[in-house]
Each structure stands twice: as C-alpha cells, then as structure tokens.
Amino acid sequence: MFLCCWLALVALIPTTVSINPGVKVKLTEKGLEYGRDLGMATIQQKLKTIKVPDMSGEQRVSPIGKVHYSLTNMHIVNVGLPKSAVDLVPGTGVRLSITNAFISLQGNWRVKYLRIIKDSGSFDLNVNGLTITSSIAIKSDETGRPAVSSVNCAATVSKASIKFHGGASWLYNLFSKFIDKALRNALQNKICPLVADAISDLNPHLKTLNVLAKVDPYAEIEYSMVSSPTVSKSSIDFSLKGEFYNIGKHQEPPFSPKPFTLAPQINNMLYIGVSAFTTNSAAFVYNKAGALSLAITDDMIPQSSPIRLNTRTFGAFIPQIAKRFPGLMMKLLVKTVKDPIITFETNNMTVQAIGTVTAYAIQPNATLSPLFVLNMDTSVSARVYVSGVKLAGAVTLNKMDLTLGTSYVGDFQVGSLDNILQMVLKVVVIPKLNVQLAKGYPLPTLGKMKLVNTQLQVLKDYMLIGTDVQFTG
C-alpha cells in the first residue's frame, strides 16, 4: 500500500443522509509521514519509466557554421526524490510537494557539419532542481469506496548539465544554447502525467477497503462513511457507520448512535474510536438471529465436577424432580430474551443480559419433559483487545440473579440453584462465548495492513485504539 492508502481514509465522499457515526478514525501527522514515505517509492518507480522522444534540428554554431544534430535512444538511469512533504489544507484536502529532485539519463548523439563531416557518440544528462506539486482529489466510486486522482499538478526543472563522450568541446555550446531548454521542456511535459498515473494506479488497491466486512455466518459490519472528513492542520478526522447487520438483511436497531469525540492524542499514526452503539448493534443482530442461546447437556460439564446435569443432582435441591423423574439425565436451554446492553465507562466495559434457563428431563425415548423456567439477570465484565486487525474480547461473570418464571414440578426455593447455575455459566456458557469472542470482528482496513504498537483504552461511551500501521504489500 502507498500514500493514497492513507488518503483513502480522508475521502471527501458526499452523503445524502447525515447521521452520527458508530466508529471514528483520526489520522495523525505521524501517519501521514509514513504514508508519504511509501508514496515516494511509488512515484520514483513511475518516473523511471519516462520516455523522452528523439530530438533533431539544425543550428548555427560559431565557428563551425550550420550543424545538423540528433539525440536518440534517451532513457532514464536514475531518479532521486530526496525531499518531499504532504501538507494538510484545512477544510480542503491534501497537497503533495517534491523538491530538489533529480533525473539522470543517457542517450546517443550525432552531428553533421561542413556538409561532409559526421561525428557521433553518447552523452550523460543530469537534470537538477526538479520540483513537483500536486493536489490529490478523492471521491467515492460506485461501490462507496474511495477513488483518487491528481489535480493541479505542476513540474519545473531549474537546470540541466550534459557530458558528451567522444565529441569536441563546441558541442557544449550547441547544448547550452539550443538543446538544454528543449530537453527540459520535454521532461517537464512527461512528469505530471506519470504522477497522475501513479496515483490513479492505486485505485484497485483502494477497492480493498472493507466497506462491508463479513464477521461470521450471522453478521457483517458496515464501514461506509456517513459524512465528509474534517481536515485540520494536524490531523484528519472521519466518520464511519460502524454498524452490525444480519447477513443480507440490513434492519436498523431500535436505537441510534450518540455523538462522541475522540480524545486528543497524537503519539500513534492512527486512532480508531469504537462506540457503544457499534457493540450494541452487534448484540441486537446476534439476539435477533437466535445466536445467543445454548443447549447444555451433561457431557459438556467437566468430568471432575461433582455436579451433574441429572435429576439426582437437581433432586437434592428440588425433591419432587427426583421423585417424578428418577434416574434421568437433564438438558438446560440458556437463551437471552432481550438484547444485551453493553456500556463503556472509564477502564470498565460491562454487559447486562436478561435471559431464561429452561430445564428438561430427558426421557428414555429422547423426548423432553419441562421441569422449570428461571428468569436470569446477569452482568459480566468484558476485556477487549486487538488481535491482528480484529477487535476481540473475553468476559467474566460479575453477578447472576435468578427468579422463578414457571415451575412444572411445584414450588421450590430458587436460591438453592444459585451454585449450580453459576457453575454452569462459568464452566460452559462463558467459555463457549469467549471462544466466539476471541475470533473477533474486523476493524476498518486497507489491503495488507498490519497494526503495530497497539494500545486500547476503554473510555466513557467508547473504546479508543491507538496504533501504528505497516503495509506489507
């Protein structure tokens, strides 16, 4: 990836609907400098492909008289871009400038004079003081991804020096008076189109922006832009939708994103703010898909546990179960009945989930006999972290409150089941959930992008990821 991979993050994409973002990204000056370094290598390679046309003409050179000359087979041997800068133009966009650049080329020369005298050889040409400035325009393509183009490009060459091999000294007079300006003009006319091509060639890479990223069989997350970015002197801030949807069905949740502002930090190249709206939209999607349920049987309980999912164990606390269903195995169905609610406070992320636990006795013919339904209100603490280019997590149980919903075996003390149900949550439900959370969901990325030196903070109403970036291809 190159300079414009960064610039894709600042695309001035017009939108028809203005909504608050679920995800915000800040690109700092440090990030722009890294992007500039990568971009120079691309432009340098492009300028090495300059094709200088053959040149010929006639000029009168004292004391030789009229000289017919031709320069042929000119080709670039070296391009240097020692000094460059990317400047943010507040409220406008980005300006790329390259100064003190140079181009070296080689070619062949041939002259004819005094009607019958011919001479030929080779030459080395050094063009110095090359300056290139270009403004880069970015817009949305038909897929909602960024597309880039170069506008208002200008290239100037201040001087050129030549060394002829095999020729007489008067050739330098011919060059300095007549050929120098023509060669510099020819080069200047070639540079801006190649710079424009170098930028345009990045558009296929920009199509890798994961505007709609699949998470798993249930969900995908959308990272389309919801407003034009804000360009300041020191950074570029832009807003992404950052919303989970069921695969192939984009139904809005019954809540909207709230405005939030990223903390003013500049040590990393990139800052990504993920709001509570984004994570709560995930909870909405998974609950709607029926993915937040788990059937638990005894074979899922560790063999070392003295507590088994059978009517004997539960009969010790609810005697009527053992009497009516002696010697049977049991099944528990744990599921949410409302969308879990995720909240962010400073250094603390919690998930509040309301669900039910339905207990069944498994008859010898595999039919299920309902025993009771418990209402369960649980709170878990979440630890979030960045894994590769994904945001992953793990949860631990804070507390669990049980109340009786329905009993098919008569009245009993619900509190007597607290230890059993906490054990089931801790050794079965939460580990299963953590396996899924460890897979993570994709952050907004471009191409083969790696996140390095990553730090994550949980703040009020959002989490902030500070990271540097490497492009590996």
Q: How would you explain this protein's 3D organization?
A:
- The protein is an alpha+beta fold and 473 residues long.
- The protein has two domains: 29-206, Bactericidal permeability-increasing protein, domain 1, CATH 3.15.10.10; 212-471, Bactericidal permeability-increasing protein, domain 2 (Super Roll), CATH 3.15.20.10.
- The protein is 22% helix and 47% strand.
- The chain is built from eight helices and 22 strands.
- The strands form four sheets. Strands 14, 15, 16, 17, 18, 19 and 20 form a seven-stranded antiparallel sheet that branches. Strands 10-11-1-13-22-21 form a six-stranded antiparallel sheet. Strands 2, 3, 4, 5, 6 and 7 form a six-stranded antiparallel sheet that branches.
- It is rod-shaped, with a radius of gyration of 35 Å.
- Keywords: Antibiotic, Antimicrobial, Disulfide bond, Glycoprotein, Immunity, Innate immunity, Secreted, Signal.
- Belongs to the BPI/LBP/Plunc superfamily. BPI/LBP family.
- InterPro entries: Bactericidal_perm-incr_a/b_dom, BPI/LBP, BPI/LBP/Plunc, Lipid-bd_serum_glycop_C, Lipid-bd_serum_glycop_N.
- Residues 26-249 form the Lipid-binding serum glycoprotein N-terminal domain.
- Residues 264-467 form the Lipid-binding serum glycoprotein C-terminal domain.
